[in-house]
Amino acid sequence: MSREARIMMLHYITGLVIIVAGAIHLATVFLVSPYEESLRFDNTPWSVINVYRNSLLAGSLEALLLAVAFHGFNGLRVILLELHQGRTWTRAVNVAVTVAAIAVVINGTKTIFIASML
Fold first, then answer.
1. In the chain, N or C: fewer CB atoms in 10 Å?
2. Cα-Cα-Cα-Cα dihedral of 79, 84, 88, 94, to 10°?
3. How far apart are CA 69 and CA 108, in angstroms?
4. Of residues 49, 60, 53, the one with CA closest to residue 27
């Protein structure tokens, strides 16, 4: 299996992970607690942050973050590589997309971590 085939296989797998982690996320938010309680917030920032103290919810958010970041940035990479071919362009796109994806994951993980620790 070539490198591109493995990357596209990961692309398809992350699509499935997005569906599963999204379902876990929605189930955690809306099915674990009563529906009215999960939608009721008292207009303070702490009411939203309290939702993220649930470790299952924080884990599903992290899985969603990783899967969506890979899936989205790989999709962008594929589009950019189809617009123009060439070894230099391919390397530049791969590096740029990888750096952007890592930046998004670091920022998102930091946000999830900080919200769960408050």
1. N
2. 0
3. 10
4. 60
Cα–Cα dist 96/77, whole Å: 9
Amino acid type, 82: E
Name the token pair of 80. Answer: 């950019």
Determine the length of the chain.
118
The class (CATH top level) of 3-117 is: mainly alpha
Picking from 97, 78, 71, 56, the residue whose alpha carbon sits closest to that of residue 19 is 71
The tens digit of pLDDT for each residue in 10-53 reads 999 999 999 988 888 788 777 776 666 666 666 776 766 776 77
Amino acid letter for position 42: D
Whether the model pTM is above 0.90: no
